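Students often ask why inverse folding is considered easier than folding. One informal answer: many sequences map to the same fold, so there is more than one right answer. In these notes we will look at a single instance of the problem. The structure comes first.
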């Protein structure tokens, strides 16, 4: 993260950069795990970065969170027990709670400071979480947590940062094997898997690892302006169900901004260069 001057904040990623005009820096401090910065921008609401990488803005967050959550939760006929690994800003859990059929959410975030700060600076992401008895707050290492679970979850969502010292294990074969064991016989997992323009090798590696473990594997896209290239991918491993069919008839959700059932049904229609990454 670089400041061009006091009015702008810039993330430099490889050979590109993206800047936001800011009103002020609201927070900057290193937690036990990472450097957390929060800015008030001119047009995008509050912005959070972790170790210099943009994570979320108030204006665009709905795209990422709706697409991570609603594709698997509408694909599964009855998602009741959910595990979220990461997602400390609260947005993923917020979207899950919109599904009436969900009975419990284990929310495992390694850096509790991210959630605490989101309660202050990103109230729309965290509102209602603490008062909903379905949410189990379990701050700690998700990699270790999932090892202890067997045949328990209907859906597992991995809402991680880019591969790094603290999150790299969430992209590993051993982790995917533990996720597979933690899922029920018809379970689904979805994870964010980076940009097909800049991180094709990561996507290919994730897809190959998932194919060795899961009966069905998928990749789908969403368009998120704050992430490098604006084109972002989600990788899925499923034991039974395809992810382009609506099976969950129990959830009736109004007011979404990005996800639609029509979009869901066409989610596997991908550009050729993205399909090539899955081979």
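Output (designed amino acids):
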């Amino acid at each position: 993260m670089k400041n061009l001057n006091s009015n702008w904040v810039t993330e430099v990623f490889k050979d590109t950069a993206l800047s936001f005009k800011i009103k002020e820096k609201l927070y900057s401090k290193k937690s036990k795990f990472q450097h957390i910065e929060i800015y008030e921008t001119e047009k995008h609401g509050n912005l959070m970065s972790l170790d210099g990488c943009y994570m979320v803005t108030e204006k665009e967050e709905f795209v990422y969170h709706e697409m991570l959550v609603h594709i698997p939760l509408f694909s599964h006929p009855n998602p009741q027990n959910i595990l979220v690994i990461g997602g400390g800003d609260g947005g993923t859990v917020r979207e899950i709670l919109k599904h009436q059929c969900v009975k419990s959410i284990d929310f495992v975030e390694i850096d509790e400071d991210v959630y605490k700060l989101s309660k202050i600076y990103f109230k729309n992401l965290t509102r209602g979480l603490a008062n909903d008895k379905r949410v189990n707050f379990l701050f700690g290492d998700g990699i270790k947590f999932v090892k202890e679970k067997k045949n328990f979850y209907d859906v597992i969502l991995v809402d991680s940062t880019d591969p790094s010292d603290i999150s790299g294990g969430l992209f590993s074969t051993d982790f995917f094997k533990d996720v597979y064991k933690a899922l029920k016989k018809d379970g689904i997992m979805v994870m964010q898997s980076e940009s097909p323009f800049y991180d094709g090798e990561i996507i290919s590696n994730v897809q190959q690892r998932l194919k060795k473990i899961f009966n069905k594997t998928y990749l789908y896209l969403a368009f998120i302006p704050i992430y490098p290239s604006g084109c972002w991918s989600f990788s899925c491993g499923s034991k039974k169900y395809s992810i382009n069919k609506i099976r969950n008839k129990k959830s009736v959700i109004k007011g979404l901004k990005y996800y639609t059932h029509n979009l869901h049904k066409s989610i596997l229609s991908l550009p050729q260069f993205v399909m090539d990454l899955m081979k």
